Amino acid sequence: MRSTLLALGASFIIGFSSVTATAQSSDVEVKDAWARATPGGAQTAAAYVTVTSPTGDRLTGASTPAAQKADIHSMSMDNGVMKMRQVDGIDLPAGQAVTLKPGGYHIMLTGLAKPLQQGQSFPLTLDFAKAGAQQVMVTVEKVGSMGPATQSGGDATGSGMTMPMHH
Ligand SMILES: [Cu+2]
Known about the structure:
- By secondary structure, the chain is mostly beta strands.
- The chain has one domain (27-145): Immunoglobulin-like.
- Helix content is 14%, strand content 43%.
- The chain has one helix and ten strands, in the order H-E-E-E-E-E-E-E-E-E-E.
- Strands 1, 2, 3, 4, 5, 6, 7, 8, 9 and 10 form a ten-stranded mixed β-sheet that branches.
- The radius of gyration is 17 Å and the shape is globular.
- The structure holds copper (II) ion.
């Protein structure tokens, strides 16, 4: 028992230092991380981010203290029915912003620690094949929101269409 505890402690320290190291050398840009507030006692939620890798990479996983599980899901129309399924990663073409959004790719959060409330934020760690782990803060927007409120200066819910910002 004692040796198990020691081993856990050691792996935590190693894991933590490698995260710190890769965060500094990472060349993946993650922005506009947001999620919808969950109504009532919902146990699941979806988180969305916009990711850009100048050199090309692959998003391979995610984790958060806000939920027991964080899986990458795709959503698509199948005979007029919206279907979600788990995928093992999302390719990030070099220099191209990939936006996870309602109706498409999302990070599925299962087993929420507590309901997501508008205005809160929580950390989300994204794992990349080349860039390693990168942590972002996810802002909780209102129920039914279609995009991050901070994007394009305001009404992100009006048309359901937000234009990506180019630099
Ligand atoms: Cu899903």
